[in-house]
Amino acid sequence: NSEEELPECAPWAVCSKVDRYDAPWVERQCRCRGSNQCSKTLDASDGHTLTDKTRQYKLCEPIKKLPKCRFFRDITWTLRSSPDNATEQIVHCHCPKTSVAYLIQRQMYETRHGVGYQYSFACSPQSRLRCQRKEPCRLFTVRKRLEVDEVNTNTLCQCPHNHHCPRHHTHAGVIAGKSYTDEAIRTYSGYCI
Question: Which Gene3D superfamilies does the UniProt record give (predicted)?
């Protein structure tokens, strides 16, 4: 509950992540500098929020000052995870409307405490491809955490007329896939119904 335990945010760092996949949950990342406060609202139109799929990323700075990313060229954000499991997400530009962020690069780096990773994300237009028969329309990656499931979704194609793609990994039309027990991750594939 105390912000004193949180590190101070770097410029353009995500101070809080809000996951709205199921019941909303918030993960604080850092505390804003000076008198700035990290937005505590679930409203994405607060002027400090970037939205990607079911997640909201809250920033200390107003997002209207961020440039717009170019598809496939600009890095929208970098996510750095250190050996002690601390993470820092720095935003460089915002994806255009109706686009999604995707992982473009993973780099390993060494510290005196061990190995860390930096993940870079770029923007892509939403897929307009029609799903073929027996082809999944959405992939779900579910990571079990202490109190919540952290779920990433990726839409692969658009369902044909009068069909829809499942929005949740527990809905009808979803089949469980591979399980990675060492990382508590399970994959699921959703099919048009």
Answer: 2.20.20.150, 2.20.20.160
